[in-house]
């Protein structure tokens, strides 16, 4: 774009992430506010018709209409991009609409996608069912078996899609290895970084082309809004996503962008604190006779522990899943009954499928976040009826241990 640009906030070069998390954005308005302004306006007044024409024709950068440009949204995008180490970011109305925008921007009928079979349930549905309606085929592969990813690639493969760690099994993929497979195939790699956030993991540093976020989770951090984003190079954002956003309008509201923008300021300390509590909870769960198995990348028993520690700043994240012991003879029904009993016995944890909140949340993935999958898809993904997912918040971990222990007595 040759004409005027939207200015950057005046900061010295080379600032570190903690500083960028509280300062990156736009210059303050004429009033000099220290806390970023919330621009609740659907449109922007243009100085004259000729300038409006130049701006609508993309000859000049300016705020026009909040379906595709809004200062509060731009501040959030710039701050998240700075944290992810990407050139640009485009905010969306939800995490799922970020993946929808990714697909609409990159794929066309006849294209092929390779996707981890362990990704969030709605992501499986979006690739496996919705995109299939438009002639995009998806092959689902094991999250952790790099050979399966390589073998699944075809001449028409355009995109590899992973999430690391996965929801709820906390499986970790080797982002660098997947980036190499994508590169060799002339395809792109997208990584959903919802569980780690840039505070722990920056997929672009490992070669990913796109980072997907559900801003609903840790970026907001207090369970207030639904939001999403894609981080990528400026060229890919401008060429692939901005035109789709302008036509299709999966836009983030300025209010929700403001909440996420302010959430980003405390992201790093929240992630550190919640991850430390989650590690303690996971270690305790491992010692409980009522627990059959614990899934947490920070535990030495996790199959990809070493990879996770290298990729995730030595942190396991804050989501711990586990399988409650139940009489084997009772099969899946008994396992589900025991899991429901543990969940219903809690009095502190919030029974909700959301995660990334300061309030610790507890859910039964097989009947909530992954309830729309077929039993076959759930089994392939390893999500059994006895599994419970706890997303550790900022509650005192001793209170959460006591809360779970209430339901650990056999039925
Ligand atoms: C890993 C992951 N990606 C994407 C999403 C979708 O995000 P949203 O609910 O903001 O659409 C979720 C939601 O739980 C998720 O856990």
Quick summary:
With 411 residues, the protein is of the alpha/beta class. It has 15 helices and 12 strands. It is 38% helix and 14% strand.
* Strand adjacency order, main sheet: 1-7-6-5-4-2-3
Low-confidence stretches: none
| Ligand set | pyridoxal-5'-phosphate
Major pleated sheet: 7 strands, mixed
Q: What is the CA-CA span between the terminal residues?
A: 67 Å
Helix content: 25-40%
**H/E topology pattern:** HHHEHEHEHEHEHEEHHHEHEHEEHEH
Q: Name the overall outline.
A: globular
**Treating each run of at least 4 consecutive H or I residues as one helix, how many helices?**
15
Beta-strand proportion: 5-15%
Descriptive report:
The protein is an alpha/beta fold. It contains 15 helices and twelve strands. The chain has a seven-stranded mixed sheet with strand order 1-7-6-5-4-2-3, sandwiched between helices. Strands 8-9-12-11-10 form a five-stranded mixed sheet. Helix 8 links the parallel strand 5 and strand 6 (210-214). Helix 11 runs parallel beside helix 15. Bound molecules: pyridoxal-5'-phosphate. The site of pyridoxal-5'-phosphate has 12 residues, from helix 4.
């Amino acid at each position: 774009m040759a004409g005027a640009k939207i200015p950057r906030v005046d900061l010295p070069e080379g600032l570190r992430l903690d500083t960028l998390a509280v300062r990156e954005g736009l210059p303050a308005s004429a009033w000099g506010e220290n806390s970023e302004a919330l621009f609740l306006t659907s449109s922007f007044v243009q100085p004259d018709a000729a300038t409006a024409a130049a701006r609508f024709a993309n000859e000049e950068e300016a705020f026009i209409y909040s379906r595709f440009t809004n200062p509060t949204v731009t501040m959030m995008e710039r701050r998240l991009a700075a944290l992810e180490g990407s050139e640009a970011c485009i905010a969306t109305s939800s995490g799922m609409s970020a993946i929808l925008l990714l697909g609409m921007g990159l794929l066309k009928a006849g294209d092929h996608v390779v996707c981890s079979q362990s990704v969030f349930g709605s992501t499986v549905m979006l690739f496996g069912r919705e995109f299939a309606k438009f002639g995009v085929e998806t092959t689902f592969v094991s999250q952790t078996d790099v050979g399966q990813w390589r073998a699944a690639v075809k001449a028409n493969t355009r995109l590899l899609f992973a999430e690391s760690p996965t929801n709820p099994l906390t499986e970790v993929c080797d982002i660098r290895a997947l980036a190499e497979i994508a590169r060799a195939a002339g395809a792109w790699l997208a990584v959903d970084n919802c569980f780690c956030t840039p505070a722990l993991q920056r997929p672009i540093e490992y070669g990913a082309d796109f980072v997907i976020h559900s801003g609903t989770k840790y970026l907001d951090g207090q369970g207030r809004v639904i939001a999403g984003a894609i981080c990528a190079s400026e060229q890919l954002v401008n060429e692939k996503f901005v035109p789709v956003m302008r036509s299709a309008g999966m836009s983030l509201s300025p209010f929700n962008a403001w909440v996420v923008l302010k959430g980003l300021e405390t992201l790093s300390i929240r992630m550190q604190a919640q991850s430390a509590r989650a590690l303690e909870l996971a270690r305790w769960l491992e010692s409980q006779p009522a627990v059959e198995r614990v899934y947490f990348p920070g535990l030495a028993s996790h199959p990809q522990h070493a990879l996770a520690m290298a990729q995730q700043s030595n942190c396991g994240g804050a989501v711990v899943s586990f399988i409650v012991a139940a009489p084997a003879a009772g099969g899946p029904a008994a396992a589900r009954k025991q899991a429901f009993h543990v969940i219903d016995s809690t009095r502190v944890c919030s029974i909700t499928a959301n995660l990334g909140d300061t309030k610790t949340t507890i859910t039964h993935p097989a009947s909530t976040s992954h309830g729309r999958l077929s039993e076959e898809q759930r089994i392939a993904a390893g999500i059994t009826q006895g599994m419970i997912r706890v997303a550790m918040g900022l509650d005192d971990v001793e209170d959460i241990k006591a809360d779970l222990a209430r339901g650990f007595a056999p039925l």
